[in-house]
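Hi R.,

Here are the chain sequences for the assembly we discussed:
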Amino acid sequence: MPELPEVEVVRRDLDPVLRGRTVVAAEVGRDRAVRRESAPEAFVAALTGRTVAATSRVGKFLVVRLEGAGHDVVIVHLGMSGQLRVAESADEARLPHTHVVWTLDDGREVRFVDPRTFGQMWHAVATDPGGRPVPLGHLGPDALDELGDATMLASRFAGRRVAVKLRLMDQTALAGLGNIYTDEILFRAGVAPHRPSGAVTEDECAALVASIRAVLPAAIAARGSSLADAQYVDGRGRPGTYQEHHAVHARAGRPCPRCGRTVARLAMGGRSASFCPGCQR
DNA sequence: AAGCACACCTGCTAGC
DNA sequence: TGCTAGCAGGTGTGCT
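And here is the predicted structure of the full complex:
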């Protein structure tokens, strides 16, 4: 799935389910789902009997903070196809590819379902002085909560020859944007995806910042984007609707909604960019 | 040392 | 109809 808006929708669904609840049991059905742990047993032991203090998010990573003096957390990344689903009880049938299950003290279950297995979760102990878990220290500022001004973005682009779309997707530069939302953000800002990031002007950086500030909240309000393969659903299994507002992403060959020219597709960094050659320069 | 290519998986679709 | 190749929202590593 999932880029920042989808992860944020899942976090908002899950927070009231988890907050103040105690995890009475945890089970790992597929070791790869907790592959950063020394052993799945360590993950289960660290989580069992613990009460959830709060949830937060950094970029595409979901952070579940546990009560106690140790400042420890569970970090979840949904990868390409991960879902966190709430079941009202253990009796509800499990979906195929259910790899991790947390049983809560109210009888509900939180289930991690992930067909492609690129997602994972793990227990992390230390937090840095800013309150971020140490394993997430390499991430740049969060694109929703910590986005700065045009000057900040320009400083992230300065001296770089890499294409601006790839730079926007670089999680160490700015955290949370992926292939869908960089397509949409670049379209709205009128910037072509293959432009070298160092050549993007200050005015264009201002347009990109405004575009990020518009697109991410709108996508969250629409409960995320669910594309053709329909892998992304929220905590209750429902798809989002923001794909209905996509101007260019996955619309190559169809007309640009603004100027009518054909949306083009470009191979970039091992994936594909969609853009309007008329609106984006 | 920035910038690539590639590995890691499963499932669906388009095309033959 | 059935097979195969290609493609899909991600991150991390290792080579140049």
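Residues 267 and 273 of chain A are 6 Å apart (CA to CA). Chain A is about 25% helix and 20% strand.

Let me know if anything looks off.

Best,
T.
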